[in-house]
Please model this.
Amino acid sequence: MSAQTSPVAGAFRTAVVPAAGLGTRFLPTTKAVPKELLPVVDTPGIELVAAEAAEAGAQRLLVVASPGKESVAGYFRNDDELEQTLEDRGKHALLAKVRRAPGLLAVDSVYQHDPRGLGHAVAQAGPALADDEQAVAVLLPDDLVLGPDGTDAGVLGRMAQVHAELGGSVLCAFDVPRDQVPAYGVFEVSDTADEDVKQVHGMVEKPAPEDAPSTLAAAGRYLLDRAIFDALERITPGAGGELQLTDAVALLISEGHPVHVVVHRGDRHDLGNPGGFARAFVDFALRDPEYGEGLRRWLTDRLKD
Ligand code: G1P
Model:
């Protein structure tokens, strides 16, 4: 781990992962399998996100689930019988793979019973925090935020460092073409001495391109002061008629709460729809020691047709 990505002790302990959605874009599969458990090559997207949280210093993953999606948190439990079988058969590499998720961090669930938006989902985590937790991380499992080497961005670790220096809340931004801003929360910013850190003066959810204050969009990584839970109680439905996390952040900013963004210069995948998922799968598979070379050869050939 580089100095840039070392966890900052005490910045936050809990990483909230909203995973209550129906996964409608992945129907019919999501009738039986939550989209968070779909494999990127051989590893569920939620394990990649949990690993990122653990790397940045999280000790606990708090999954916001909906009834019927117990298997998301269940995925992080040890399977003693399977592990014993693999051990008996000398399958040590596989054993390490199945033990990785349970070993990353502790996992708990809270439930969101009505689908009233991302802000409402995050609000469900508030009562599950200990009194001394001043900040909380939120990671949207649809977003994979990748470093220049493609696998480990450490962006949450960098956000924790900025949080330690500047306090308040720290989010992650990436630059998108203007015609894509209606899909995102968009920041109004000013520069700081660090070109990758901007001060945020406003935030708006899913603006029209002509109304967007910038082309810096929110990636699904948030390091939020505990004050967010109070703000979430005070917002009203916004874009799409939903309670938006963006609107709670905007409310905090309007009340003088410091918010900064780390501008992410690496890559990003959107696991929230089959097209984005296919790209992530291919990208990860191309870098896989077992499947990469064969896939590259096949793809090169296929693309000639
Ligand atoms: C959510 C957030 C949005 C953010 C985006 C990142 O939107 O509301 O602010 O930019 O995630 O992926 P959703 O993708 O759920 O529409």
Observations:
- Residues 118, 140, 142-143, 184-185, 205, 217-220, 244-246, 272 surround 1-O-phosphono-alpha-D-glucopyranose (CB under 6 Å).
- The first helix runs from residue 45 to 55.
